Amino acid sequence: MTPVPWRDPALPAAARVDDLLSRMTLEEKTAQLYGVWVGADTDGGGVAPHQHDMTSDYDWDELIALGLGQITRSYGTAPVDPDLGARALARAQRRIAAAGRFGIPAVAHEECLAGFTAWRATAYPVPLAWGASFDPELVERMARRIGQDLRSAGVHQGLAPVLDVVRDPRWGRVEETIGEDPYLVGTIGTAYVRGLESAGVVATLKHFAGYAASAGARNLAPVRAGVREFADVTLPPFEMALREGGARSVMAAYTETDGVPASADPGLLTRLLREEWEFTGTVVSDYFGIGFLQTLHRVAGTPAEAAHAALLAGIDVELPTLKCYGEPLLEAVRAGEVPPELVDRAARRVLLQKCELGLLDEDWTPEPAAPVDLDSAGNRAVARRLAEESVVLLDNPDGLLPLSPDTRIAVVGPRADDALAMLGCYSFPSHVLPHHPGVPTGVEVPTVLESLRAELPDAKVTFAEGCDTSGPGTAGFEEAVARAAEADVCVAVLGDRAGLFGRGTSGEGCDATDLNLPGVQADLLDALVATGVPVVLVLLTGRPYALGRWQGRLGAAVQAFFPGEEGGPAVAGVLSGRVNPSGRLPVSVPRLPGGQPWTYLQPPLGLAGEVSNLDPTPLYAFGHGRSYTTFAWEDRTGGDAPVELATDGSYDVSLTVRNTGDREGAEVVQLYLHDPVASVTRPDVRLIGYQRVELAPGAAARVTFRFHADLSAFTDRTGARVVEPGALELRLAASSADVRHTVRLLLTGPTRTPGADRRLRCGTEVSAAE
């Protein structure tokens, strides 16, 4: 028997969906445009502000009779055993399919920022740690595992990665970003997308666009970015993740730029995203973002007007639950206030994606194929490797690290013996479990204290907390100082507590007034340093903090950005020397807590100068990181004379990196561009390429960067992206401030406007060297 066209897998997806749409009523089409948050709190005690305002009670059976677009966070709302959760989700999907005329199941989505945000799922390092690894291949492996876990549990769409570029480190969501450089964010984020999509899960790019540039670093504040900042800093990571990563979904940002909310901006969500970038996937709202057009932005007077504005702009799906795209939208369409073509356009995109996912096929089944294990040994191995690669050795001036195996160590600080010190705000224990006191973490998360004792069994290790993470109390200082005074070395483990909306010192809605360490931790560190015992500072944070106060006073300093469930052993391994640190800073570490915001992407007036008494030069620059071995950079290409190159030409830059130390290690070779003269002001330097190189003692490798003139492109005064003729410098560097070699170029020929096929990344090649 021949199936109806929309059920026929032999037909093109577009033909199947067109046939299906022709059979659906307005109500059935609209039902595909929203999700439902099962178990969402409606009494004001939920995870997020405004959740109770935007969540309504409904009759489930009545609702699903029309079909349903999405199921919101069936795992990420409350602790549920993964096996039981998979079976419950399968039952819900069967009910949805059986209730509607067409038997179409819902797309199930979940958060997966630092792993699947579910109970008993692997808690990986946060994205800022991915950036610190400078290792896209490892991030792709991690994302593939996350995607496989999501699919095994019946989930189709993951709300990650975050591609916001840090503009002000006081912003609470810095931990969710990959760093302060668009090239690093783009390449690492694209790797994550490839991994997630390779597992058959729809990756959702967040937050499109400008969210991280909010004024004063306040969450969901207005964005006052200029046209060029938006085009050259904010947008490139999204373009790369779409063009090269193949992401199939985009989430509209909460924020507004120059008075226009992203969720109501057809220039952003349709003209740029769809027409210029040729994106064909789905655009989803951030949670309650469509309703916020009425309640927070006040560009709509009713839920129906908010629905109209969002549909017109190009948002296809309202998340997390129905508010505006339900009855208010239906009434507006029936009244002739909203063109039905807008509903058809969005429904077509949603159904095309469901078709790609196999949800329109008759043989579709929601049952899990095997028992669901979300924290496998393989997951933990990848989590450990990424945690180890992400730890940054900021300083070790006298070689205090690695620690001697039989030394006396005083471990001090509020982050030393707390498992949550390893986890970011979108890990399940930090995100959901605060609302479920008494429920165990669900995964094993060794602390730094536990891990150091296991790492150095012959050492005498004592412990004192000293103070709380954010509280004002100093009563514990005396014991902490006493323990330090008795030791050969003090390891001070300080930093952040991840949380949501003011319940932590880092995380969504946990913005900082300045970049002082939270609470009285700075005073505790002063007291420890005053003992005269060498102090190793270990920071477990979601953002960089100002460390100039202790410059020259510490024995060593180590930075880890919420390194996940295997972070304790990773940090302990760096302290013991089992792990040779290879992380590099994805964000600058400031010298002073004020004078912000500042990232390294500064034009001349953003650098230190005689016109202001404030020096914004960071203590540790973007890309900085030390090792326990040494490397020599030899035999680079290019001489003293400029190399002439057409404005559409390319040039290979090579050098040999040699491990001149006595132990295996990894060097991160970074390529920066300096544009001496341009038609608009340009950053003094900006990253355009990098390569992580792992070398045995005495070994060498030849690293080649394939520079193309497209990589020098920027937005000119007319708003066009151009490659201008003139002088350029390619700087081979160990950080944005540590230049080892310079290659001078001279671009010749006319100013060129590169097209949609322009090069977005600098190709690299690593080969053996003698």
Automatic annotation (TrEMBL):
Keyword Hydrolase belongs to the record: yes
Keyword check for Hydrolase: yes
Keyword field: Carbohydrate metabolism, Glycosidase, Hydrolase
UniProt-recorded Gene Ontology molecular function terms: hydrolase activity
Listed InterPro entries: Cellulose_deg_GH3, Fn3-like, GH, Glyco_hydro_3_AS, Glyco_hydro_3_C, Glyco_hydro_3_C_sf, Glyco_hydro_3_N, Glyco_hydro_3_N_sf
Domain of life: Bacteria
The Fibronectin type III-like domain, residue ranges: 667-736
Similarity comment: Belongs to the glycosyl hydrolase 3 family.
Name under which the protein is recorded: Glycoside hydrolase family 3 N-terminal domain-containing protein
Organism: Streptomyces fimbriatus
Taxon lineage: Bacteria, Bacillati, Actinomycetota, Actinomycetes, Kitasatosporales
